[in-house]
Pyridoxine/pyridoxamine 5'-phosphate oxidase
Amino acid sequence: MTTLPDDPFELFGRWFQEASASELNDPNAMSLATADAAGRPSVRIVLLKDVDPRGFTFYTNTLSRKGRELAANPHAHLNFHWKSLRRQVRIDGAVEPVTPAEADDYFAVRPRASQIGAWASIQSQPLGDRATLEGRVAEFTAKYEGGDVPRPPHWSGYRVVPSRIEFWQDRANRLHERYIFDRDGSGWVRSMQYP
């Protein structure tokens, strides 16, 4: 690539569209790295559910390990890896909660079984056995039978507001290219780096 757009979200949109056409499963899968108050990191895969100029949004149980870590240390790192395209996108930034209205809107379009699962799951907490979880699913299925499933108070979304976005492109002989966008006030500063 010889020229870069001024806006990293434009480039991300192009790459994400290409990944959506080429990746077999979950092109919106991204690694989410968080750290606790002492700085101990943890990483897991979550799914991107929205992206706009404000940032990159995912949803989860706020009582989960990731939710507790984000409450203690509201910064995160995201990494998309699209193996078929030999590309990665790395995103560093602060994390903010989505609004209750945004969380309600997204929860309302989830499959009903996933809505029930949000109530039944005690994420990141030990359970005696799978039967206990299945019993909780049955309990909440019966509770909300015949009506809408409301969003649990402990289920919401987070937006990673990027301060840096790095686009990584594999090249021959490990002479890879990296396109860096660093936030500068309301705009972005672009640069290119090689290995």
Remarks:
- The two ends are 15 Å apart (CA to CA).
